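Appendix B. One record, verbatim.
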Amino acid sequence: MSENRLDRFARGELPPAESRDLAQEALGDNDLFDELTSIAVARRGLATRGTKKITWPRIAIFAAAAAVIVGAVLYPRQRNSEPVRPDIAISAAPTLLARNGDSDPARFRGADTDTRESRAIGSIGSVADGIATINLGSLDGLAKDTQVDVIRGGQAIGHIRLTTIFRDHSRGEILSGASIGVNDQVRVPPSARLRAILDQIDATLASGEPEKAVSIAQQASIESFDAELSSEEDLNNAGIIAELHGNQTKAGELYRRALEANPSGQDRQVIEKNLARLKGTK
């Protein structure tokens, strides 16, 4: 990476195409990401708040910086000379929130550092006496009594109600579909998929990986945002996912619901900024 290229990025002179390439490279290069984060922090005028312990405000600051970098991919600047919002890629980045201290995001990751990522699609491993075992579990957002569709050839052929949930697999009662068998696919419901994505975002924020959290939000592929969310952190982060997928109406609704959840003063400021920035981009 040439110093000239970084200097041009810092001055806002790098063409949109090169900015997108640079941002994409940073997602897989820790050293480059650190360089761009430093530039982003300086350009946004963010400052570290306190030095006693790492709490969510500091995590949120670095998550915001990470979002600035991803913003170069998502919101390239327009080639015009209008003075209105000349640097939207830098100034219009949403901020993720880590959950409050009473949550336990480590439950998502567990003790095994080689854990897999969450899945939207799994498969049936065994069927016996009307009970199916599938290779999806709490890691994938599933919970007891969740009903999942069984898919074959792209079509739903039956349903399973989950009765026993483990971290990476589960068992359930076959409700319909007499021909359901081993290797048939199982689809995670959209609300459960969103739940898993939010858990994964929170776990990566808690482990000090804000750039990965932003990447997860950017790459998330979900069918619906109609999950039963209640905490301001989850609602805010779901709003960011909706926004990154171009659904500004749903993003605004989720940000407003986050404010209605009576967030703390610091959380409220972040959510209000996300909502105000969203309104400013419409």
